[in-house]
Design goal:
alpha/beta, Rossmann fold, 21 helices, about 40% helix
């Protein structure tokens, strides 16, 4: 029996007391509580199914209990029981919105690993270990041996793209992988992955000419067409479960409005072809209505709209995003915490990039760059917390530039100039030149997120999966808290979530036990 099989069996045996059901019964049962809350009964049913009530509902329920004279205390929501996890049996379909550089590199990479022709470098699920217990015990299994993840041989790939190239043609055109070493040995497999017609709106990505696109009278009909694609893909490939990952281009910058607040308004907007409904929202809504976890790998406004975030929570579907953290922002979320930890001040941080792939071309459009700029600018402010450390960071000047430079293709180069100051205000500088391949860094993120989101769904998690913020530039988070950007805090959160999920002891790094006499 493997490590994760043992943990799953233990959790299943021990997960008998249902805290959520006990609270629900105090309000007269599922339908009664749903009526009092003004929510669909499926929301309360989901709480009963997973055995816990999301924390954002605790205050509401406590207030209602007080009004109705029902005995209910904060401790009644707390359970030491871990969620049971459904097994990772059968095929997992990974449906990718976009079959460009990131998606084709990801698919090709997984196939190389499956064929024994390469290693999944950069993938936490495949390469990283997780410490269990004390350092002195030296118990560090691989994550994939600790938690019940789907195996690479269980994965099946599908995609949508407004450009009709199959995965083989896309991989050749993108130029990320070596044709002779990486593409031709698996050419037949890549050619078998043909993109389905995409939901496409040129107003959202003006630099792309889409010919492989869906046509419908309304955006609601486009939702139905995407849902049909999902059902057909699942049936035709004998998949047991699906995950959808947005790997497509960055859409133009928009903010949420009245149509994004509740489901009735959102559906009316779909029926009326409202221009504020982006293609990414159509895919996300379709995914949630099909019960499929959705990952937003771009900075678009998508599942972070109030209506879709609430729908995901109500229907028990995991969502996460946004914007894969790969190059320059990855470096920022390492260097900035270092400066803050040592209380070194920052006068300014200037960042510029050159890249020449399709992403770079799309971002050459000002409306699309604005979306990316908002995502890239946010990390430093949250890490530095200038309101707490005004002497160090209140006047920090932060500038981000992205320049489309076709000769570089996918080989992105990011320059950072950081003007810092230390003891008695003496000035110093840090200069970073990161030459990287955007898609090589993003491909393992797609794999990890697909596997972890499938795990989250099987564990009964719902709504925002903040524990996966490790992978994003602009992590989606509860409205009551600020996002965590520090890469190492994010890593600790991710691994402690896995420990908690499997009933293992949390690692606090206190370590006092090593220095006390028995």
């Amino acid at each position: 029996m493997t490590i994760n099989e043992n943990f799953v069996n233990i959790l299943t045996m021990n997960n008998e007391k249902n805290i959520a059901e006990e609270v629900i019964q105090r309000f007269g049962g599922q339908s009664s509580l749903a009526g009092v809350l003004g929510r669909r009964q499926s929301t309360v049913q989901h709480w009963a199914k997973i055995g816990r009530i999301p924390s954002q509902w605790h205050r509401t329920l406590l207030d209602l209990a007080r009004e109705k004279g029902i005995a209910l205390e904060p401790k009644d929501f707390i359970t030491t029981e871990m969620p049971s996890i459904e097994p990772a049996d059968g095929k997992l379909g990974i449906m990718l919105v976009g079959l460009g550089a990131v998606a084709s590199t990801f698919i090709a990479g997984v196939e190389h690993v499956r064929c024994g022709m390469g290693k999944p470098f950069g993938s936490v699920t495949q390469m990283s270990t997780i410490r269990l217990g004390k350092r002195s015990e030296k118990h560090v299994p691989l994550i994939k041996d600790f938690v019940p993840l789907a195996g690479l041989d269980q994965l099946v790939f599908g995609a949508w793209d407004p450009i009709p190239d199959n995965a083989y043609e896309a991989a050749l055109k993108c130029g990320v992988l070596n044709r002779n070493d990486d593409i031709e040995p698996i050419a037949d497999f890549l050619k078998s992955i043909e993109p389905m017609p995409a939901v496409f709106d040129k107003e959202y990505v003006k630099r792309i000419e889409g010919t492989n696109t869906k046509k419908a009278a309304t955006k609601l009909e486009l939702v139905d067409a995407v849902r049909d694609d999902m059902r057909n893909f699942k049936a035709n490939n004998n998949c047991d479960r699906l995950v959808v990952v947005w790997c497509a281009s960055t859409e133009k910058f928009i903010t949420d409005s009245d149509i994004h607040q509740n489901l009735d308004s959102f559906i009316r907007a779909l029926e009326g072809n409202d221009e504020r409904i982006a293609p990414s929202m159509i895919y996300a809504y379709a995914s949630l209505m099909e019960g499929i976890p959705f990952v937003n790998g771009a900075p678009n406004l998508t599942v972070d709209t109030p209506v879709l975030a609430r729908l995901a929570d109500d229907e028990g579907i995991p969502i996460c995003g946004k914007d894969f953290k790969t190059g320059q922002t990855l470096v920022k979320t390492v260097i900035a915490p270092m400066l803050k930890a040592r209380m070194l001040g920052v006068n300014g941080w200037f960042s510029t990039n050159i890249l020449g792939n399709r992403d770079g071309e799309v971002l050459d459009e000002p409306e699309n760059f604005k979306t990316k700029e908002e995502s890239k600018l946010g990390a430093l402010e949250y890490i530095f917390q200038p309101e707490l450390y005004p002497d160090l960071y209140a006047d920090t000047y932060h500038k981000v530039r992205i320049n489309y430079y076709p000769p570089r293709g996918d080989a992105k180069e990011g320059w950072d100039n950081i003007d810092i100051f230390g003891w008695l205000g003496h000035r110093m500088q840090i200069k970073i030149d990161f030459l990287c391949s955007d898609s090589i860094l993003a491909a393992p993120l797609v794999l990890d997120l697909a596997l972890f989101m499938d795990l989250a769904k099987r564990a009964g998690f719902s709504g925002i999966q903040e524990w996966l913020s490790f992978y994003f530039k602009s992590p989606q988070h509860a409205s009551s808290v600020y996002p965590e950007h520090d890469l190492f805090i994010q890593q600790t959160k991710l691994k402690n979530t896995l420990r908690w999920l499997m009933g293992a002891e949390q690692i606090t790094h206190l370590g006092m036990e090593y220095y006390r006499e028995d």
